[in-house]
UniProtKB/TrEMBL annotation:
Keywords, ordered alphabetically: Repeat
SUPFAM superfamilies: Histone H3 K4-specific methyltransferase SET7/9 N-terminal domain
GO CC aspect terms: membrane
Chain ranges of the TerD domain: 358-436
Superkingdom per UniProt: Eukaryota
Descriptive protein name: TerD domain-containing protein
Basic and acidic residues composition-biased segments: 235-245
Region spans: Disordered: 235-309
Organism of this sequence: Cymbomonas tetramitiformis
Gene3D superfamilies xrefs: Histone H3 K4-specific methyltransferase SET7/9 N-terminal domain, sav2460 like domains
Length: 725
């Protein structure tokens, strides 16, 4: 049966043709070089207007996952379920008969993943169907939903008609309303406003910003400033500048002036959810072994599965991954405090949150007290008793402004993984909180999927941003310049979702250190694999570009600690072809082998002179030309970085010469010819290095008659005629 196409605003009465279980699906064709870009979510709203539940890739089923009789989730993300056909790349199943009777509206939302918007796919197909695929409803996607900057669409709403509790039936309306924010959790206000016609009990009081927040997907990061702005909060660095030199210290009795406004303290609530156990089956009985003839029976004892437990830690790291501290349960250090059993949880407030879970620990981070040497903080959880991950239906970390209680961001681990993914894995890296310059070029470049052809100005900006942490003593700033530099730093937060090995929190700390220095995606094996990643190395170097199989491979920019920068192509972790800009402004463009200049290339010296030709193992070797500032050119054979063999020299205005170099020194017979008259002279050079000359001399030009210890021994003959060159 052909699909029925619904235009925006069209209504459709859902009858028995669709059935009690429907599938919300999407299929799309990605542009070349782009990964899959879309994800689906389904939100339910109560008849009185309150938020009910949501399913999305980070929350694969509802809180009341199982009903007593059917053992089927009312909302469930179906990716990876072989029992459902894969006509679409992503599907969510909605079991209408299992939905709570107080749920009146089901909202279907299409969002974008990291580094994409709705203009990225070449085509998008959004459908609704029953489990048997017949009939199929297809939603027309208007042009305004495919514009650059559109990152989510409220596709449709399925709602109950009649009055609670005696509903009459279901009706569907196509909406196709575009929004700039990427996920369902950030457009909760708009979603409720969009479906107000379907939920008469929904009032303005039910439309609250408190239900919305930023969802942190794997490898996605956001600035705290942007998150705060979207939540109506002010973001302001809490540190204070140092007092001007010569100003007397205030008396100890004087109260310190408080910092007004801005985000000062974060609270991270962590916890997990396990699916409810299915109803207990009737216990089997067996005869007692002691008396074969006895009819007495005893209940067979069932072994209870040990509960899943996680140990949470926060690792603090310097830029190159060096560990500053690790704070765990009950600890307090460097501005990070685990509240432990002393936490106070407002159960009523928790019940109103979009994603609900049992809070097992709370972590407070005072941003002002984090030492200036700390570049990043990594939150990781260890399942060190190695219990089955299949017990886990959700692992969460919610970031909150501790001063106002406002939700900022939520991390949710995607548990839709094959069981073999979890084998022998005991830990998971959840979040990374880090700081860097607010005007960094990396993030705009990453989001635009840009190439590595950088302008000199961009290179200088990247180099300046290398030292992203002020060099003060702890949180003290010794100079006004350091303070002004600190003001240009901003905190960012990144979702990780990386499973790791290890049997102790110390081993987890080592894994966290590796995470702290890497911003990018990983493959199924946990290896670094991303076209637009960033890595900080222990030696102070930094790389931005492509990684494959945990090696630099493809296009990238490598910035050395002491100022040199390479941008070009890499292979198997080594430089292959590209441009090296040295700290002294010398520039090489050409081929490389094992991180040395090798093959064809051009090196331009800081003073403007340059060499074009062959290179071997980092030195000029083979045929090449050396161009002097005065316009003269030395063309010939080179070895070990020096002219060696037959060379031709073309002076700018006066003469030409040909002869032999030996390890960079003109030697033996040479022929000269003046350009103006054509006069030729033949002779030879004899070299006597001056005693006081200890330093290496620049590439010598064959001069006439003498040059730096070279003595010209001519034969006294001069002829006119054709050029010897």
């Amino acid at each position: 049966m052909a699909a029925k196409v619904l235009q925006p605003g069209d209504d459709y009465v859902v009858t028995g043709e669709v059935g009690s279980q429907i599938l919300f699906g999407a299929d799309w064709k990605s542009k070349e070089g782009f990964e899959d870009t879309l994800e689906l979510s389904v939100v339910t709203v109560e008849y009185e207007g309150g938020f009910k539940d949501c399913v999305w890739p980070g929350n694969v089923a509802t809180d009341d996952l199982y009903t007593t009789e059917s053992q089927v989730a009312s909302l469930r993300h179906m990716n990876g379920d072989p029992s459902f056909p894969k006509d679409e790349k992503e599907q969510i199943a909605v079991n209408l008969t299992d939905l709570s009777n107080d749920a009146q509206a089901v909202i279907f939302i299409v969002g974008c993943t990291v580094q994409s918007d709705m203009s990225a796919p070449e085509s998008v197909d959004i459908v609704l169907r029953n489990a048997k695929h017949d009939p199929k409803l297809s939603f027309a996607v208007p042009a305004n939903c495919r514009q650059p900057g559109v990152r989510s669409i409220i596709a449709a709403v399925l709602y109950r008609t009649g009055e609670f509790p005696n509903w009459e039936g279901w009706q569907l309306r196509s909406l196709m309303q575009p929004y700039e924010k990427p996920s369902w959790c950030e457009i909760m206000v708009q979603a409720k406003q969009a479906v107000k016609f379907a939920v008469p009990g929904l009032t303005i009081a039910d439309i609250s910003e408190a239900e919305s927040m930023c969802i942190l997907r794997t490898s996605e990061d956001r600035t705290l400033a942007d998150i705060c702005k979207s939540r109506g909060l002010e973001y302001k660095a809490p540190e204070k500048p140092p007092k001007p030199e010569g100003e007397e210290e205030a008396e100890e009795e004087a109260e310190e002036e408080p910092v007004v406004g801005g985000l000062r303290t974060l609270r991270i609530d962590v916890g997990w959810v396990v699916p409810p156990k299915p109803p207990k089956k009737e216990k089997k009985k067996k005869k007692k072994k002691k008396d074969e003839d006895s009819d007495e029976e005893e209940e067979e004892e069932e072994e209870e599965e040990a509960p899943l437990e996680f140990e949470f830690n926060v690792g603090l790291f310097q830029e190159g991954g060096e560990n500053v501290a690790m704070v765990g349960a009950g600890g307090s250090e460097n501005g990070v405090t685990f509240k432990g059993d002393d936490k106070e949880v407002d159960e009523e407030a928790e019940a109103q949150k979009a994603i609900r879970f049992t809070i097992t620990d709370q972590i407070e981070i005072s941003l002002a007290e984090v030492p200036s040497e700390v570049k990043s903080m990594v939150l990781f959880a260890g399942n060190y008793n190695q219990l089955k991950w299949t017990q886990l239906s959700g692992l969460y970390a919610r970031v909150i402004d501790a001063d106002t209680g406002t939700q900022l961001a939520l991390f949710s681990y995607d548990t839709r993984q094959p069981e073999e993914v979890f084998e022998q894995k005991t830990g998971i890296m959840m979040l990374k909180l880090y700081r860097e310059f607010e005007d960094t070029n990396y993030h705009p470049w990453q989001m635009s999927r840009g190439n590595i052809e950088l302008t000199p100005e961009q290179l200088e900006t990247l180099k300046r941003q290398r030292n992203v942490v002020p060099m003060g003593d702890e949180s003290d700033f010794e100079t006004q310049e350091e303070w002004e530099k600190a003001l240009k730093l901003e905190w960012r937060i990144r979702g990780l979702s990386l499973l790791t090995f290890g049997e102790t929190s110390e081993e987890g700390q080592a894994a966290a250190g590796a995470v702290a220095v890497y911003d990018g995606k990983r493959n199924a094996e946990g290896k670094r694999e991303d076209k637009h990643c960033r890595v900080f190395y222990p030696n102070g170097d930094c790389y931005i570009g492509e990684y494959r199989d945990s090696q630099r491979c493809g296009s990238g920019v490598y910035m050395f600690k002491y100022g040199s920068t390479f941008y070009g192509e890499f292979k198997d972790g080594h430089l292959l072809k590209g441009t090296m800009v040295n700290a002294d402004k010398g520039i090489y463009v050409g081929d490389w082998l094992e991180d040395k200049m090798h093959g064809k290339g051009t090196y331009t010296y800081p003073d403007g002179e340059r060499y074009e030709g062959d290179w071997e193992a980092g030195q000029k070797s083979g045929n090449g030309k050396y161009f002097y500032l005065d316009g003269s050119v030395l063309d010939g054979e080179w070895s070990l970085g020096q002219p060696h063999g037959v060379c031709n020299y073309n002076e700018t205005t006066t003469y030409r010469a040909t002869g032999v170099y030996d390890a960079g020194i003109p030697t033996g017979p040479w022929n000269f010819q003046t350009k103006k008259t054509g006069l030729k002279q033949m002779g030879s050079y004899k070299y006597e290095k001056p005693e006081q000359e200890d330093e290496e001399i620049p590439v010598p030009k064959p001069g006439h008659p003498n040059y730096l210890g070279l003595s010209w021994v001519g034969d006294g003959t001069a002829t006119c005629g054709a050029s010897l060159f």
